[in-house]
Amino acid sequence: xxxxxxxxxxxxxxxxxxxxxxxxxxxxxxxxxxxxxxxxxxxxxxxxxxxxxxxxxxxxxxxxxxxxxxxxxxxxxxxxxxxxxxxxxxxxxxxxxxxxxxxxxxxxxxxxxxxxxxxxxxxxxxxxxxxxxxxxxxxxxxxxxxxxxxxxxxxxxxxxxxxxxxxxxxxxxxxxxxxxxxxxxxxxxxxxxxxxxxxxxxxxxxxxxxxxxxx
Length: 215
Ligand SMILES: N[C@@H](CCC(=O)N[C@@H](CS)C(=O)NCC(=O)O)C(=O)O
Fold this sequence. Notes:
Bound molecules: glutathione
Radius of gyration: 17 Å
């Protein structure tokens, strides 16, 4: 049995971890669950332990949640050549980690807050609330579009994906798929191209095949 276990909730950020594990050529067992009424089933949360949010990963005695933290851990443990994340002390490491953190703490924060409005605002005018919250999402997506354009490369840091892409790809897909804050694919041709290139990698395809991920 492989030492790494990934608790994978369907239609979620868990694809980030699976893609990274494929990039790192690590063997891993997938414990999979569909959602029930939009959330993770109680038994699945109990089995994983921790916060009961996914991805959750166990590597030997180490149990981790939070996709960005899992990404940093996996790179530090298994990316000894620093192909996916530069070494501690190399300034480039922090430029890469900036995207790892921003994928959750900025892009997803702004996008998913809007999703929560759509789900939970029962009175007033949720569309108006969404409009009021759209500025940050538009700003984030404009910045990603410009960064990709300026980089002149397939991925955020060159023509091979690194840990920043394994985090940012899902966020960009999700925001565009759900048109959070009114953003749409027509306005972001570089992001659409980037998503296509991420999904064309053999490692991403393997991760989808192994986990059954679909949005
Ligand atoms: N910031 C966390 C978010 C984790 C999270 O909220 N995961 C969602 C799936 S994308 C989840 O587990 N939802 C199930 C539930 O709340 O029951 C991360 O990046 O891992």
